[in-house]
Sequence to fold (457 residues):
Amino acid sequence: MTARLQARNLSCERDGRMLFRDLDLAIGPGELVRIEGPNGSGKTTLLKILSGQLGDYEGDLYWGDAPLSRVRDAFLSNLVYLGHATGIKTALTALENLAWYQALAGETGSEAARLAALREVGLAGFEDLPVAQLSAGQQRRVALARLELTPRPLWVLDEPFTAIDKAGVMALEQRLHDHVARGGSVLLTTHHDLAAQGTLRRIRLGGGGEHAQL
Amino acid sequence: MPSSDTESLRGVEPVEPSGGLGVAMAATLKRDLTLAARRRSDIMNPLAFFALVITLFPLGISPQPALLATIAPGLLWVAALLATLLSLEALFRADYEDGCLEQLLLAPQPLPALVLGKVCVHWLMTGLPLALMAPLLGLLLALPAESYLVLSLSLALGSVSLSLIGAIGAALTVGLSRGGVLLSLLVLPLNIPVLIFGTGAVQAAIIGDPVGPHLAILGALCCAALMMAPFAIAASLRISING
Fold:
């Protein structure tokens, strides 16, 4: 099958520093692409560009066969993006947070689905507590429950393993591999070593605008 | 295709945008109202500011009812405008810091409609209470009783425009760490027509002139802001997030 998300000749400069130059990237069904690089090498910037959040770049982005800017709504309907900031309101309960995300996707959703998604990420029993009372790892898990709750083909995850315990890391890794095995696509940055199952492509960003496809 | 196949492909096959704007707007309204209800101090701040400023004037200027009644419409309107400005900085701040704003921009829904929901909650939590409280403070300033209704009405109508225009400024300054002063500078000139016709309505009510024209212009300003501001807010948010 053809690639879903494609970047051609992508270049980005920040504060006079070249983060990457002429980067070509295509991610199709059943692929997991990992962006690597030291701190400050532009991993988050690249993910933000690829998820259509930053316009400050040169090059072209395509979703399917059409330029991303033309099919923005279709692209966003197929994307789950989890950034550094969890996007979880600490004054609301986990259930209320998830209900909003479900509604943003245009679905009324059901309480049962939300409870099941929270159970899946190991938060059974914490559904009705304000998220502020949960630990950092548990807050991150609330955000991860969205992967289960609003199933989308393309997952763009920025450091999804932050603050997650060992068992949680293994479960999340398994979830990523399952998603890819079913034909989904995952694009992520992490400093954690992924157990190499199935297809894993790596792109290493280095200083001075260099990058390598591994 | 058998239904079991479609089910197994759920979440891995590209889908078309499915709409559901009504659901998304309702949920945004509900979420922001819940948040406001859990942080009551944020609602109380502009109201307390409004009350404090107004109570100081009789002490600072003169307790003479005749003098106070002449300046009361202007005082009440200026204080309400400043109270609204104070509350605006927080409009998108929390969402920006915890990443919800980024997610709002990534929602497959028209952004102007979603921000309209947020501004609506801001008005319900600031403009409307200010309008309801104003007659009470008018009493302190010896405002003639026949203008109470017009005062509330003009504030309720005018504060819709204040919230909408202010939200543009809030969206533009959300990425700045100390955007408060800049926000005021950006927004105040645009608020001046609202202030002029708002006080005009109350003054007309005091001297017995028809208030209709003033309120009609406030209504027109409100309609124009409702039509245009959501798009400006959405565009401003995109600029701020891009930076």
